[in-house]
Amino acid sequence: ERGLQEAQARRDRRRAEEERDRLFEFSPDLLCVAGLDGYFKRVNPAFEETLGYSSVELLAKPFIELVHPEDRAATMSELESLGRGVRTTYFENRYLREDGSEVWLEWKAVPNLEEELIYATARNVTERKRTEEELRQRDAILRAVAFAAERFLKRARSWGESIEEVLEQLGL
Question: pTM score, two decimals?
Fold first, then answer.
């Protein structure tokens, strides 16, 4: 009887591990287990697809080397917080792809201090960031056009008197 229960428990555990592995492998989001030592311990295929490196390459170097140089200090600060047991509910940084281009990632992470591990998910938000920047630029242009129209059409100044202000507003 006890032997049958143990065998059933092993089968259940193996089935649960297989289900976990399938979710890990097929997630469109980047999933990883990282060490507090600064190395990835396990990454899913979405990491390879997003960054262009093989999993072997991703596990072989400190992950901070993959982070955009301008985002390394903030990333290290976030890692230090995780090392104190603080969960990451929202963090954005840029990673460098194998081809040198950058990708924006939005992170959530949970530390396990006993195992010195971090369980993290990341989502590629590069398109959203690009769209936000395009909207900021469009808004700046519209503000500059409104400013120019107000200066040229509503004020009693001559064109020559207003042009300096307009060019300054346009950043020229």
Answer: 0.71
